[in-house]
Write a structure and sequence with these properties.
single chain, 378 residues, alpha/beta, TIM Barrel, Type Iii Antifreeze Protein Isoform Hplc 12, nine-stranded parallel beta sheet
Length: 378
């Protein structure tokens, strides 16, 4: 499969932003990773569980909390709504009634947004149908997420992009050509788009995660910020994504993996694990650093102690002409450097030098050469 975007698509990308704001936080190239706690449906339709989830996500270091919004009749056809629901830990006798039981009211969304803002995390959601976009516009979400399920749902993508708000696009279950079309649909309306590598297998085993897909997306959709939406059961892949430069990391979030519902145990992480991920990512950014390769002041003490200097192999009298046989290299490292050894041959000493003593610059008459210097072969 070719990784070369279509020519008109390339033209759209030229006008896209490499950095932009998600609420108060700038994301993209050169910025710290932005962490999203996807509460999704893990509130199980319980407002107070949703509220506590926001509070714990904020404590764990999330920059944003994400919910889901569906108009059940607009998202699911009747034959799927009427499908029997057989799992004992899930409410509802049909898939439709089960899904309906997970929906929060407009008033609850508004209140949860206030809770998130109080705790200084952004509140947003994934709409799964066009009426849900209208719903979320009334709530006042600052940006949107498109689920992998809807990469090919171009009418929904267009409606979301028409709001002119930033969009985060997950790419599980999609071909590169389908992602091209989705990205093009959004960029036709505005230039603030981030793309997430994602594998829609719940949970995702190591052999399918293919975290290197981040780099494929990065090359293909430059300069758009690229991130990762993970469905693994630990945080290693998420941290690997950060190491590869992911601008955003989204993980399903639960107060307890023991709660009933399909996402809690299979793909979600608990507050302490989420917090560990955020802390580790911050350490990784510090470890990666921003400087070039250089000698640090803090290294100089160790270099002076354990580096090598030119040392007298034997006692050398004052005024003696130095020969190679008189010299060796040993620690400490604050004297003349081993690279200076060939240049010392043929020079006179200005003072007597004891055997096994470090030779210093002032011990040598540099201007009084009697024998041509021997230089190392280049």
């Amino acid at each position: 499969m070719s990784e070369s975007p279509k020519p008109n698509f390339r033209e759209q990308l030229r006008g896209a932003k490499s950095t932009f704001y998600l609420s108060a936080q700038k994301i993209g190239h050169g910025q710290p990773a932005y962490f999203i706690a996807e509460i999704g449906n893990n509130h199980n339709g319980d407002f107070f569980l949703a509220k506590r989830s926001i509070e714990e996500a904020a404590k764990a270091g999330a920059h944003a909390v994400k919910f889901q919004k569906r108009s059940i009749n607009d998202t699911f056809a009747k034959e799927l709504r009427d499908k029997p629901q057989t799992k004992g830990d899930i409410k509802g006798t049909t898939y439709g009634t089960y899904r309906e039981g997970l929906e929060l009211s407009f008033e609850q969304f508004v209140e949860l947004k206030k809770v998130a803002e109080f705790h200084k995390v952004a509140f947003f959601a994934t709409p799964f149908d066009i009426p849900s976009v209208d719903f979320l516009e009334k709530v006042g979400v600052p940006f949107y997420k498109i689920a992998s399920f809807d990469v090919t749902n171009l009418p929904l993508l267009a409606r979301v992009a028409e709001t002119k708000k930033p969009v985060i696009l997950s790419t599980g279950m999609a071909t590169l050509e389908e992602i091209d079309e989705a990205v093009s649909t959004i960029l036709a309306h505005h230039n603030e788009l981030a793309i997430l590598h994602c594998v829609s297998i719940y949970p995702s085993p190591d052999e399918v995660i293919n975290i290197g897909g981040i780099k494929i997306l990065e090359r293909r959709y430059h300069p758009l910020p690229i991130g990762y939406s993970g469905h693994e059961q630990d945080i290693l892949a998420s941290l690997t994504a950060v190491a590869l430069g992911a601008s955003i990391v989204e993980r399903h979030f639960t107060l307890s993996r023991l709660l009933p519902g399909p996402d809690h145990a299979s793909v979600s992480i608990e507050p302490h694990t989420f917090a560990e991920m955020v802390r580790s990512a911050a350490r990784m950014r510090t470890i990666r650093g921003t400087r070039g390769k250089e000698l640090l002041d803090a290294e100089k003490v160790t270099r002076d102690k354990h580096g090598k200097s030119v040392v007298a192999k034997v006692a050398i009298p004052k005024g003696a002409i130095i020969t190679e046989a008189m010299l060796t290299c040993k620690s400490p490292g604050y004297g003349l450097k081993p690279r200076d050894l060939p240049a010392l041959v043929g020079l006179r000493t200005t003072c007597a030098i004891d055997a096994d003593a470090v030779i210093r610059r002032e011990d040598i008459a540099w201007e009084d050469r009697l024998v041509p210097a021997v230089h190392p072969q280049s």
